[in-house]
Structures are given as structure tokens and as C-alpha cells.
Specification:
Elements (H helix, E strand, L loop, with lengths): L4 H13 L4 H7 L7 H14 L17 H20 L1
Length: 87
């Protein structure tokens, strides 16, 4: 379940200031169609970081485009081309 920014801010406010648990949020805001599992996950994140923003460094690593990888791929493609020319 994805939460929009306004929902995240409201959930964060209610968790931190009013001490709402995920189940209470889920019951009081049934019209939002939030999942209890999603609220639990967001609640755990709020408890640890006191924020709902994504942490820096979270997500996929971007090591694919480092210079070492580029050089290795160039060497491999050149070696393959040489094999096809000789054969």
C-alpha cells in the first residue's frame, strides 16, 4: 500500500503526538482504504526514525556504472570481437 505525502504526515503526527497505534488508525480511517500491514510498516519506520521520509542511501545501489565496471565490460566485448574475427 502506498501512502501519499499528506497521509504520511497525518499518520506521523497521530503516531508521535497522539500515540495512535496502527490498528486504531486503520479503524478510524476506514474510508482511506489503508491496509493494516502498510500501517504497521509505516508505524515501525516512524518509531525508529521519527520521520516518514525515505532515508538517504535507501534503495538500489548504483555501482553498475562505476569506472571499473565500464572498463571490464569494454575488455570483455573487445575480447569477444577478437574471437569472432579469428574464427
Amino acid at each position: 500500500m502506498f501512502f501519499i505525502g499528506e497521509d504520511k504526515a497525518a499518520i506521523n503526527f497521530l503516531r508521535v503526538n497522539k500515540h495512535y497505534c496502527a490498528k486504531r488508525l486503520w479503524k478510524e480511517y476506514l474510508t482511506k482504504n489503508w491496509s493494516l500491514k502498510g500501517l504497521n510498516k509505516l508505524s515501525k519506520k516512524t518509531d525508529v526514525t521519527v520521520s516518514v521520509e525515505q532515508l538517504k542511501g535507501a534503495g538500489w545501489l548504483r555501482s553498475v556504472r562505476c569506472n571499473d565496471s565500464i572498463e571490464l565490460i569494454e575488455q570483455l566485448t573487445l575480447s569477444q570481437e577478437e574471437k569472432h574475427i579469428i574464427a
